[in-house]
Design a protein that fits this description.
The structure holds two protein chains of two kinds. Chain A is α+β, with helices and mostly antiparallel strands. Chain A is built from four helices and 20 strands. By secondary structure, chain B is of the alpha+beta class. Chain B has two domains: about 80 residues, 2-Layer Sandwich (Gyrase A, domain 2), CATH 3.30.1360; about 140 residues, Beta Barrel (Cyclophilin). In chain B, about 25% of the residues lie in helices and about 30% in strands. Chain B contains six helices and 13 strands. Classes of the chains: A alpha+beta, B alpha+beta. At the A-B interface, strand 12, strand 15 and helix 4 of A face strand 1, strand 3 and strand 4 of B.
């Protein structure tokens, strides 16, 4: 059923779900929402499960005309929300009526916002997912970001008929200086001084940041003199910090499957939601943690989400 | 010189990725070992593993750290050794890829000729005269990393990569050759183009080939290119 007409698409707005799996060996990257925490909460706020497709809105959100009654929720980056010109709260259920104009303004803090809708956005499932793969020109809405005039549909689902709200203490705050926890490897043995540099100096987010990767600028993360500048191309996962020949690290995101550069460390999964929210000019500090520590954080993160979900959905 | 490892070397990729390396060389024997182990893993995925991905000489396992851990998975791989004996890779299929060489489809064919000292005709003959092993797929959907190009064709990459290489373009970079299945940026020297659609995401089977298959390039003229282009 018709949900929205796109009046203005925003800077880069795409349909995303948790992502594609099982096609890495054919060169199909995982894609999907970058800030998993915010996207998942948005879905719970309108009564969806976490698989439902949402809009990922980068830097500046869209202006949308509402076709039919629905519930929506906006989460993630701090982006002012207006319905017919009136400011509305984020991180809670909002009810919209036919003819309403929903507008998501440019970010104040953070970088990516999420808009969930009753039933989830209705685009074809391709290779098991509704996520847009911009580089591959498929998935989501015709394999591309939204443009003016697009019509977005939603899947049929019942309304909550109540307002859910994420308690303020559970809402993330977005800083301009962000600590990112990382586990050494896969090629930490290719670096000696370079590892110290990586873990002990700040890096600035460059303006070259998209869903493929987030390029950083800072002190040179040099390889040992006796190792090759590139490695035999191998699998790569979101969070991997790869170091190209200019020694400026790149945090790999969700539109890559293989890479040929050495990776001194990998940002842990739970902190990728933070990477999604950093923008040009922000700084990051990598903190070295052990695999055991990383696994403990994964479990804590999962437990926290389970608690939030059960509190929201009572 | 690279070598083949007796026991796979394990590397950590964050909290949920493990890389197992079977050598530090691009080599058919190593690659087939990788594919055999991948097949065994896919037949019975270890508990907590959601996906395995084979490449030239390594296998990536994506695991859920709440259900399993690297020690358990390394042991699982070790125990797999006996099963591998009875396991065979499926017979590889050979896929013919029609290619219209040169002119607008292969703007760098003259450069490759100049660099290699061969005539354009010789380049086409040599390039289409070999069978190429697909070692792995990556970079973009269906992009094959091929082994087996004749050394005489070796040509360095473009100094400045193109921002848009049209889907179907066939190129050379150093001692490798490959095809771009989708429009993408790229720095390979383009020598021709296939009219075939190599990646059809909407189809039940979106790919014409998989890692382990072989590719043969068949020269076609512009008329045949146009005819095949219409069929697709």
């Amino acid at each position: 059923m018709k949900a929205f007409k796109v009046i203005d698409p925003g800077a880069q707005t795409t349909v995303q779900d948790p992502g594609r799996s099982r096609y890495l060996q054919f060169g199909i990257p995982v894609c999907g929402t970058l800030d998993k925490f915010s996207a998942e909460i948005a879905n719970y706020l309108v009564g969806n499960n976490k698989q439902a497709a949402v809009l990922e809105m980068t830097f500046m959100g869209p202006k949308l005309e509402v076709f039919s009654q629905m519930e929506v929720a906006v989460t993630g980056a701090e982006m002012p929300i207006k319905v017919n010109g009136n400011e509305m709260p984020a991180w809670q259920t909002l009810t919209l009526s036919p003819g309403d104009i929903l507008q998501i303004l440019p970010v104040k803090t953070g970088f990516r916002g999420y808009l969930a809708i009753t039933g989830g956005f209705d685009v074809p499932k391709i290779m098991g997912s509704r996520s847009t793969y911009v580089g591959g020109n498929f998935g989501g809405l015709e394999g591309r970001p939204l443009k003016s005039g697009d019509i977005l549909g939603r899947l049929e689902s019942s309304f909550l008929g109540q307002i859910r709200q994420l308690p303020v203490e559970d809402q993330p705050t977005f800083l301009t200086s962000v600590p990112l926890r990382a586990v050494p490897g896969p090629q930490d043995d290719f670096f000696d001084q370079g590892l110290d540099v990586l873990f002990n100096s700040p890096f600035t987010v460059s303006n070259k940041a998209d869903r493929m990767g987030c390029r950083l600028e800072g002190s040179a993360v040099e390889l040992k003199p006796d190792v090759p500048q590139s490695i035999i191309s191998e699998p790569i996962l979101p969070g991997a910090i790869q170091v190209p020949p200019d020694f400026q690290p790149i945090i790999v995101l969700v539109e890559m499957t293989v890479g040929g550069y050495a990776k001194p460390a990998t940002v842990i999964g739970p902190d990728l939601s933070l990477v999604a929210q950093i923008k040009s000019g922000d700084t990051v500090n990598f903190q070295k943690i052990s695999l055991t520590e990383a696994h403990r954080i994964c479990k804590d993160t999962k437990d926290k989400m389970a608690r939030i979900k059960s509190q929201l959905t009572v | 010189m690279g070598q083949i490892f007796k026991k796979p070397r394990m590397r950590l990729m964050g909290d949920s990725g493990l890389l197992f390396e079977y050598g530090d060389v691009i080599d058919l024997e190593v690659n087939q070992k990788v594919k055999l182990v991948t097949k065994a893993l896919n037949q019975e995925m270890p508990l907590g593993v959601s996906e395995v991905m084979p490449t030239y000489r390594s296998i990536l396992m994506i695991y859920d750290p709440i259900q399993t851990n690297p020690d358990v998975l390394a042991r699982h791989l070790d125990n797999l050794k006996n099963q591998l004996e009875g396991l065979k890779l499926p017979p590889s299929k050979t896929v013919d890829i029609p290619v219209c060489y040169g002119e607008k489809h292969g703007p760098e064919l003259p450069f490759v000729a100049e660099h290699t000292g061969l005539s354009e005709k010789e380049i086409i003959k040599i390039h289409s005269g070999s069978e190429y092993q697909i070692f792995m797929i990556g970079f973009t959907p269906g992009f094959p990393f091929l082994g087996g190009m004749d050394d005489r064709l070796t040509t360095p990459r473009l100094k400045t990569p193109r921002t848009l290489v049209p889907a179907g373009s066939v190129g050379i970079a150093n001692n490798q050759t490959g095809i771009y299945p989708v429009d993408s940026p790229g720095g390979w020297q383009l020598i021709g183009r296939t009219p075939l659609r190599l990646f059809s995401p909407e189809k039940k089977n979106p790919f014409l080939y998989a890692a382990g298959d072989k590719i043969r390039f068949k020269p076609v003229d512009q008329a045949e290119f146009d005819r095949l282009n219409q069929i697709k």
